[in-house]
């Protein structure tokens, strides 16, 4: 096996100690090159690795890369391979067949929902090579008054040609720039070359094969860690810098020399049993330092929780020297025990801040925030994460920010991430390591100095369109607000020239239409932050189920139409994502009885990624190959499909006894709670993606004594609905899980927009 960087998959280079020199050079990594270009904070990075198999037998090569969490992969290619996206088992079977026969073959490995990891393995035929090229883009975030480019490199073997190159162009001018790496020795430091002018900087690092060695007589490499570039730009004393390229603008807002606002902060500390030992010790040590760093005009509180909630004091205290001393004594007494009631712990903190505001005991124009530290999932009190999110969002009501720190790996980080973003905050994972105390302190320092509250950036509607988010809850010291949009034709000269420093970056130093790509990046990133609380299903009969976890309820409706009808289920014009479904009927229908229809075929389209995915009852395959899609076929006949940065869904195959006189195999379609689409999404189920408000009243006896009827008020209509049950097959494909729902009669009339016929399309891949 060969492994090549920037990051090797498992480090299993040979059946020997990788530090010991060996004369066997039958397989080697010829080159690893990382080329990063930055224009106005927008980074475009290309990673290229080439491996050669000089042996007379085939060998397997692994290519695995760790990327910044905020980066989007925009391209990936293998020069010796053209693949097809197939069912996982079939792909693995063909791959192993090619490996055994010595041919060149590749298999992309799934990496789950973690966008920061990309992996692929390929079998290289004898005396042949392969080149991998991966491209990703990201908007550099300003933290602590600087931008950071971090490139993780772990080739785990010596590389004949290794090179890192970075070029930065900033029209505002470069204020300072530093380059470092976690693996630099005194011998490697001189190999880092920097050339810096007013607006441009060039960095390079290219050690020879001998300079990479850990020692003269070993094959171990020194190149193992992070290559880091930090810099900042010059800032004028106005209220922002606007850059325009090809009809798109980007506005960078980070005013200098603003006075710091006082803050009101409640620390909510998990003291459940899993925090016992090192984690609690590190938390206590970090809190002691953080309390010392509070400013005297700040107000603070301490809340601890397991299955019960306790307070240092019932109300906020000013950060006086005496109060800080007493709080630190309390922190020393916190002991880990019992269960985890996150819901009650956070709600009590919200109540503490809300009460202080009502009593006018806080300074005017001060920033209120909650900092939650937990290492686990809710195991006491309210344990439904959707309900917790709803409870907290309703309690906070946009009046304060919530920041979530997740300690370790044994927690639902996605839950904390949504919880924070729904309340104008952010989440951060604290890794269990010796520097956990520094991680905790570092996070606090990011939010320790608020400068502005409720920042609204206004742009004239006659001049701009397609704006990204222009309202921000707060601006912290050392950070930056970025807004992008499109300029209307002929309006460039009228674009706020008198107020803001208008810049037109020099074309020769930028990469293509970077402002448009930056706008698209921000648009998608902000869509990713808007997580829906709905689970939408298309399965069985009735076909449609809209599960609403926040209300612990669901709506369902059927479609009565001829077999073969194609319905548009989801259509998002902004992301280009479309799902259409074609119905099938029973094998035969007895005279006088009602025939049932199910979905027997789905067509999934993603225009942005140029994907056409067909799902049939006997096979699931992709018409076009695409590396933006991840497929996983489980043993229980369910297919999980993840389209990068867009949506994740499950298709389930329901098998029916082949000799059944009436029924036949059919499919179910489920969107998962992690999928993200725009506000423009529509379709038979897409229209419910961003929520549905309804009220049910006046229960009365219906035709079925076990299924009461009621009156539902929804979308301005009053409907008679029936209480029933439907099965959710996501967790148990064979038997399903019973879901109670309100059944809307007459093809969902009154619930869906328009008429059922409005959703009929002519083709399975119809995208408009």
From TrEMBL:
Residues 1-29 are annotated as: Disordered. May act as a carrier of hyaluronan in serum or as a binding protein between hyaluronan and other matrix protein, including those on cell surfaces in tissues to regulate the localization, synthesis and degradation of hyaluronan which are essential to cells undergoing biological processes. GO terms for molecular function: serine-type endopeptidase inhibitor activity. Residues 13-138 form the VIT domain. It comes from Astyanax mexicanus. Belongs to the ITIH family. This is Inter-alpha-trypsin inhibitor heavy chain H3. Keywords: Glycoprotein, Protease inhibitor, Proteoglycan, Secreted, Serine protease inhibitor, Signal. GO terms for cellular component: extracellular region. One of its GO terms (biological process) is hyaluronan metabolic process. Residues 264-447 form the VWFA domain. It is found in: Secreted. Residues 11-24 have a biased composition (Basic and acidic residues).
